[in-house]
Amino acid sequence: MRPKLRSTLPLALLLCSPLLIGGTIERIDFNARLLAAHNAERERIGVPSMDWDPALAADARVWARELAATGRFEHSPDEPNQPIEGENLWAGTPRAFSPEAMVGLWVSEKTDYRPGVFPNNSRSGDVENVGHYTQVIWRTSHRVGCATAVGKNEEFLVCRYSDGGNVETDDFSDYRDVGGLKFAFQRATSGAGRSTTLKLSKVELDPEVPASLFDKPAK
C-alpha cells in the first residue's frame, strides 16, 4: 500500500507573526506576496520560480470557501482522471497574519527536512512533518494559485500547485498485452492522496511473438 500524505496543520499560533495596531495585518498585494514567499524559498535552494495561475487560484477559492462555511480543516476530495494538483492548507486568526507568515509556517518544516527521493525526506521518519515544505519547493511545480476565506472563528488559506508535488511514481507497472505488444504504464500517486494517474511509459515486443512478423515485405 502506498503511503498517502494528507497533512493538516494545527491552528497557526498568533505569536508566529507580529501584529499591527488593531490586531490586523496589512494585506496590500496579497497574492503577489504569497507568490514571492514561495519563490524566495525556492531561490534559496536553487529551484526555479513558480508563476501565479488564476485558474488554480479560482479552484483554491472554491475549497477555501467550503472550509470557511463548514469549519472543517481537510484536503479537498480526490478528482479521478484529472491532472494531479498539489494542495497546501493553513488556518489561523482572521487577518492576524501576513502572507509571508502563512507561507513561513510551511517553510518552517524545513528543520525536519532532508534531501532525497520522496517520501524519504524527513529526519524524523515521518514525511507528514515536511509535506507542506516539500510541496513549496517541488521542482516540477511551476504554477501556484491561492485564496483565503474567513469562517466563524478562523481564516483559511488554500494553495493549489501544478504540477502537483509529493508524488510517488512506480516505474513500468500495469503491463497490458495488446496484439502481441506489451504496453507499460507508470502509476503516479499524489502524496496528498488527491488522485492517481496512468501514463504510457514504454512499449515492448512480447518475446513469444516472432520478430519475423515485423520484417519488411519483399519488393
Question: Topology of this protein?
Answer:
Blueprint: H1 30-44, E1 51-52, H2 54-70, E2 86-92, H3 99-107, H4 131-137, E3 143-150, E4 155-162, E5 167-178, E6 181-190, E7 196-205
Parallel strand pairs: 1-3
Antiparallel strand pairs: 2-4, 3-4, 5-6, 6-7
Percentage of β-strand residues: 25-35%
The class by helix and strand makeup works out as: alpha+beta
- Describe the biggest sheet? 4 strands, mixed
- The rounded distance between the terminal residues' Cα atoms is 54 Å
Spans with pLDDT under 50 lasting ≥5 residues? 1-23, 186-202
SS element count, helices: 4
Helix content: 10-25%
Gyration radius, to the nearest Å? 22 Å
Q: Mean pLDDT, nearest integer?
A: 77
Shape: globular
Strand order of the largest sheet: 1-3-4-2
- Write the element-wise H/E pattern from the N-terminal end onward: HEHEHHEEEEE
- Please provide the count of β strands: 7
Provide a descriptive summary of the structure in words.
This protein is an alpha+beta fold. Helix content is 22%, strand content 26%. The strands form two sheets. The protein has a four-stranded mixed β-sheet with strand order 1-3-4-2. A three-stranded antiparallel β-sheet has the order 5-6-7, with no helix packed on it. Helix 1 (30-44) packs parallel to helix 3 (99-107). The longest helix has 17 residues, at 54-70. It is globular, with a radius of gyration of 22 Å.
